[in-house]
Design brief:
With 210 residues, the protein is an all-alpha fold. It has 8 helices and no strands. Helices cover 75% and strands 0% of the residues.
Length: 210
């Protein structure tokens, strides 16, 4: 009797495991973890960029202190980014997610404008610290793009599973819901990284009469 009960127990567990696997439960688990990991990397790279801003602003200020409007926009944009609590839970709140992405887009735009202004100051462009910060910013922007694309791919796979039959029934049963992702509008705002130009300053015009 005991053997039959034990056999029935294990058979039932095997059936449940097979059913859950066939209904997308394992895929939901795996893709949900992929989203968490890729989103953590997105946050990490955005934080890396935010950490570069104060030093970058200070260096530019040393050569172009009268460019107050541009400098203020960068500082304010960074402050707005910092005012949003960047946590893993953002991907469970569509409104909070979009607010965070919009703030990051503003910072991208402000940094782009700062780099354009920097082009007008040859001494600033030649400053070793400024060039180092430029290189770090460019590398960070590239890493942001890579991390964001990985997040988009992970969310796409997960959301398809959540919406598709019969895995959508499993998703409803266990409380899995679709996750927000970057929209076309988001991409237009943040897909173009700040311009980083390592070209040498243009040669001075020849003196009159030469």
């Amino acid at each position: 009797m005991f053997r039959w009960a034990s056999a029935f127990k294990w058979a039932s567990m095997a059936l449940v495991a097979f059913t859950l696997s066939g209904c997308g439960y394992n895929t939901l688990q795996t893709t949900d973890e992929d989203i968490k990991a890729t989103w953590a990397e997105v946050l990490n790279q955005y934080q890396r960029r935010a950490d570069l801003v104060p030093n970058l602003v200070n260096v530019v200020k040393g050569y172009a202190s009268h460019e107050k409007d541009v400098l203020t926009r960068v500082t304010d944009a960074r402050a707005r980014v910092g005012s949003i609590q960047a946590t893993p839970d953002l991907i469970n709140n569509e409104a909070a997610f979009q607010k965070f992405v919009a703030a990051q887009g503003e910072l991208t735009g402000a940094l782009s404008r700062l780099m354009v202004v920097a082009e007008n100051y040859p001494q600033l462009k030649a400053d070793g610290l400024f060039r180092d910060l430029q290189a770090q910013l460019e590398g960070t922007e590239n890493r942001i793009t890579v991390a964001r694309n990985r997040y988009i791919a992970a969310v796409k796979t997960y959301n398809v599973t959540v919406r598709s039959f019969p895995s959508n029934l499993t998703a409803m049963m266990f409380g899995y819901k679709t996750k927000p992702t970057f929209t076309v509008e988001n991409e237009k705002a943040i897909a173009v990284p700040p311009k980083v130009d390592f070209g040498t300053p243009a040669p001075a015009a020849p003196a009159a009469g030469n």
